[in-house]
Every structure is written in structure tokens, then in C-alpha cells.
Amino acid sequence: MGVLGRVHSVESFGTLDGPGIRYVLFLQGCAYRCLYCHNPDTWAVNVGKIIDSDEVLKDILSYKNFIKSGGVTLSGGEPLLQIEFVKAILKGCKEKGIHTALDTAGSIPVEASAPVLDLADLILLDIKCFDDEMSKVLTGHSNKRTLETLNYCEETDKRVWIRQVLLPGYTLNYRTLVGLAEYLKDFKCVELVELLPFHKMGEYKWAALGFKYELKDTQPPTPEELNEVRNLFESRGLKVLMKG
What we know:
By secondary structure, the protein is α/β, with parallel strands linked by helices. Helices cover about 35% and strands about 25% of the residues.
């Protein structure tokens, strides 16, 4: 018997969460309350399907031929809230030669997350906002642990893709984004910066859960704004992928 964990959902042919075609396991539970979250149904820690890590690995192996160009991504929610479950899956994938990625905001102390970070082949690190005070407004939390996680990845030569949501009025701030680009440009571990334009596809979930959606009147970024942001990162030698 493996380790029990709580799973929100599975996407067996994912193309948005790491390189290639991937088996994406969305874990239940998150301490952050991002205003733009499109999966607020992953927040609660005491719901979701309880499943054994051995069962997850068996399911992953049934897709091995289909994901050979990609791998497995553990996402959420925040997967680091279920460290032992995540470790068991990462170890199992490593034994079978399957590439793994961990999508995280680095929301727990590095002292606790290091064993998991060490096991993953790639870290998809969500920097919610480089401005710490705005990060607290946007998520309810400081960005300190996220940046500590990035520093740890640099120290251990761990491959990292940075993910940044572009939210007008919050993260879509030229001064803040310049600061982020200047900060990232010297990190050897950062292979890619994924820029994710804000969208409202999860708004209906907020209503279904009885949550107040504060971004009802917020519009997605314009093409001109997106081009400007892309240019400011690329001009500092960073490889950029604009999603959406």
C-alpha cells in the first residue's frame, strides 16, 4: 500500500502544464486565495477523492506510451500541502523513467519542501506578484516563500519555468514586471517565463460555491499590453511563452 492523498481531478492528455503531452494530477487543497483563481473548488483541504499513490501510479503507467514525449505534472491546488503523497508519486515516476513536473507557488518553507523539489525534474513556479504588498492583496500571502523556493532551485541546479498571471490593476503593472524581469535575468535555473493573460473562465465556479468574485468588471489585457510585457522580458534575455 502506498500513501493516501486527496485528488481534485485528472487530465490525461494535458498540453498546458509543462513540456509535451502530460498526465496532469490536480491535488486538492490550497492555502492561497488568489482573486483570479479559476479553480476555487480546489481550495478546501477536506474534500476531493481519497486515493492511494500506488493506484495513481498504476493509472499513470496505463498512459505511458501516450505521454512519452511529455510526462507527469502534479498541480493543484497546492501539491506541497500533501508532501508524502507527492513524494511517493514522484519516486514511482522516477523509477519508471517518466519525466515529472511540479506546479507550485512554493507556499511552504523550503526546509519542508526541499525533498519534493529535489525529486521533480522540472518546477513550474507560480510567482503570484513580485510586489510583496500586492501579493498579500492578491493571494492573502507574502511572496517570500516563493522567492526562497526559486533561490533553492538555483542552488541545486533545478530546472524552473516561471509562471506569471497578467491581471490588470494588480500584476499587470509595468514597474513591477520590470522589477521581476530584472530579478529573474541572472537566474541560470530559469529556462522559461510563461505569461498567462487573465481570463474569467472560472468565474462561474465562484458563484456556484457562493464566493464573491471581485474581478467581475476586470477586462483581460489588450494585445498591445501583452506585447509590451513580452518585450520587456525578452529584452532582458529571458525566453518567453505567452499562453492563451
